[in-house]
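Summary for the lay section of the report: proteins are chains of building blocks that fold into shapes. Here we show the chain for Hydroxyacid dehydrogenase and then a coded description of the shape we predicted for it.
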Amino acid sequence: MSKPAVVIDPHFRSMGEIFSTADRQRLTEVVDVVWGRDEPMPVELAREALADARAVVCSGWRYGPVPTNVRAILDVSGAFPADLDYRACFTQGTRVLSAAPAFGPQVAEMALALALAVSRQVVDGDSALRAGTEKWLHAGNTGTFQLFDQPVGLIGYGSIARNLRELLRPFGCPISVYDPWLADGYLRSQGVSPVALPELLSSSRVIFVLASPTMENGALLSREMLEQIDSNSVLILISRAHVVDFDALTELLMARRFRAGIDVFPAEPLPADHPIRSAPGTVLSAHRAGSIQEALWEIGRMVVDDLEAVALDLPPQRLQQAQPELINRLVRYR
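The coded shape description reads as follows.
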């Protein structure tokens, strides 16, 4: 049986970044690779190739109308592609898939690391010891707390949150969730408690901001909402700064209103003079949660797994599928 043609045009990502040697070999065994290079495929050449392709692997959509023969679009950027006619895709049965689930484990791991670093004041303790101003034993633990049995709140319950829930399991934390895109019954079936956002903010010792950016949640965590966080609590911002009033967050952290761990910022790279750089009780990370090489290879593994299904006219199972009810409510970055 002949292999289906698939356009592989992952730029801005490189082939080696997302495909391990083993998965690149699997890729050539499953499909007839068209292009498969690090540099971007010329648009006219790509449009010609798509006329005979079963699927396309890309980082964003720049090829114009989607031919009806294309059964799947697999975006490896980590988001759903902008500039794509989703209505046409749904009508003609073209599945649109995002590699977002590949980032779940590594980002969840970083979220947990930040929570522990902030709650146990690991960075402050290290800095004090290096400066010769450390306090030992009990005196050095003033204001710290352990994560075990602490109430945790998750804002958003997608792939990152589901991975984080498993990492939190040994700590025995009761978990509350605010996610208006999921029904309460589903959340309860996951072993978490659905709550309103104000309740989550006021009752959680550790709050993880995990929500994807949507047309509806810009600055969801307004100054009014942020002020409901208890002074002994920790906020972990790990998804997108879009969800938070970052100016208000910065002011509250500078005033020691609560503590935080932050991996994402409104402008990246972060301006050198941004006041958040000197916020006390805050651990900062330069958007490093989702860029570990062995974890990036999970993108390629999932892509090849789903291309195997597409080649057999079976539904893909590994990547996240665009949902007609929700896709136009997401903020899609170019």
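Put simply, here is one thing we learned. Residues 100-119 form the longest helix (20 residues).
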